[in-house]
Amino acid sequence: MNIGLRNDEVILVPYEEIWRTEFEKTREELVALTNLKSHQIEHIGSTSIEGIRAKPIIDLLVGVGGLAYLEKPFFKVLMQAGFYRLRVERPDEIVCAKFMDDTFQIKTHFIHIVQYEGEKWQELLFFRNYLRANEEAKKHYEELKQSFFVTGLQGIAAYTDYKEDFVRSILAKRGEES
After folding, report:
1. Which of 14, 74, 113, 145 is deepest in the core (most CB within 10 A)?
2. Distance between CA atoms of 127 and 173, rounded to whole angstroms?
3. How far apart are the C-alpha atoms of 43 and 46, rounded to whole Å?
4. What DSSP character marks residue 82?
5. What's the chain's Rg over C-alpha atoms?
């Protein structure tokens, strides 16, 4: 399976069906190790959108009762599954990563821990579901991501910033559909 990126590396590869299988395997492992239920773990990011080129990293959305209530034992259990809490500062979100091996050079998975059914949970699922259901938006998103490589910009922060206006435009549709 072709998954994993070095720190700050940005590459896109064609969609692979194995990404869905890897997500399901990881979800089952997390359910077995934690008190999480299957419905609290969702596949997000471009690897969850069939047919779109993606960074080859599996993104999982994990919904919990409250971030403030997570204790060290929860993160110790995640470590048993190979996930390490990152020092990433994001509002209402904790990020963990799984690595290819104990050199910690290549990340293969991310867990985005958020309030279950909270605002961040809703936004991330809306974005995924919108792209899954709208071929035109999916194609536009893929073209935008591909165009990043001709800008001269580099790194994951620049890549994320480059896509921000598109992401916001899709999330604005969430209010329109309410």
Report:
1. 113
2. 9
3. 9
4. T
5. 16
